[in-house]
């Protein structure tokens, strides 16, 4: 009987805790690849998600960011302009939504690695999904993306670096060579630590 009572008490406490837990940050992920909403839509959308309880935005631009210089080819022809990025950030600020940019820095880089300019940076030649962390130019590509996105997000305190679902890892000859005395996970951690975290 006592055991049953304790079990019921624990379950009651668990249900109370979980039914009342509300995270401090409640972010809406905007995945903008291919079809960016017009500013006129965002003007209505941000107040709407705020009314639902959102406190911020995780913005994943991919090819909708107006990259420039050596990585300009990453931008699609219908990418936002710099002026439009400013408008989006102003609207976010007006609606008290914090903004965290999401930049893919390892996997999910099809939007860049599908292009002839960056295809040489693939881990596996047949697949544009994952970046090779050992090739010349990979770090430069990431550095340029991070620098440019953060240049237009001066008030953002956080950056999401992706790194999920790296389907091709440690498969090219350079990575295999580096992995001689290490587990496969080592090269993942090396890339995140030395290539991205800096
Ligand atoms: Zn490699």
Cofactors, ions, other ligands: zinc ion
User: How many structural domains?
Assistant: 1
Distance between the termini: 58 Å
CATH class: Alpha Beta
Structural class: alpha/beta
At the fourth level of CATH, the homologous superfamily is Glycosidases
- CATH architecture group name: Alpha-Beta Barrel
Keywords: Hydrolase
GO biological process, one term: carbohydrate metabolic process
EC number: 3.2.1.52
Catalytic activity: Hydrolysis of terminal non-reducing N-acetyl-D-hexosamine residues in N-acetyl-beta-D-hexosaminides
Task: Provide a short characterization of the protein structure.
The chain is of the alpha/beta class and 198 residues long. It has seven helices and five strands.
Give your account of this protein's structure.
- The protein is an alpha/beta fold.
- The protein has one domain (25-195): TIM Barrel (Alpha-Beta Barrel).
- It is built from 7 helices and 5 strands.
- The chain has helices spanning 2-20, 39-51, 82-94, 110-113, 138-151, 173-178, 184-196, and strands spanning 27-31, 56-60, 98-102, 122-124, 127-131.
- The strands form 2 sheets. It has a 3-stranded parallel sheet, with helices on one face.
- Helix 2 runs parallel beside helix 3.
- The mean pLDDT is 91.
- Residues 123, 132, 134, 172, 174-175 line the site of zinc ion.
């Amino acid at each position: 009987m006592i055991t049953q009572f304790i079990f019921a008490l624990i379950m009651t406490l668990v249900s109370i805790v979980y039914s009342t837990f509300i995270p401090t940050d409640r972010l809406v992920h905007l995945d903008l690849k291919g079809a960016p909403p017009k500013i006129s839509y965002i003007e209505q959308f941000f107040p709407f998600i705020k009314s639902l309880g959102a406190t911020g935005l995780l913005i994943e631009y991919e090819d909708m960011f107006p990259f420039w210089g050596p990585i300009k080819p990453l931008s699609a022809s219908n990418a936002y302009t710099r002026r439009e990025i400013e408008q989006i950030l102003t609207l976010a600020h007006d609606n008290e939504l914090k903004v965290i940019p999401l930049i893919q820095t390892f996997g999910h880089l099809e939007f860049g690695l599908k292009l002839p300019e960056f295809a040489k940076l693939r881990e596996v030649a047949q697949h544009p999904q994952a970046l090779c962390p050992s090739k010349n130019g990979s770090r430069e590509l990431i550095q340029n993306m991070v620098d440019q996105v953060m240049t237009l997000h001066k008030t953002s305190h956080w950056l999401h670096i992706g790194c999920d679902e790296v389907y091709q890892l440690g498969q090219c000859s350079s990575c295999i060579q580096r992995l001689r005395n290490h587990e496969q996970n080592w090269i993942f951690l090396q890339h995140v630590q030395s290539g991205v975290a800096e």
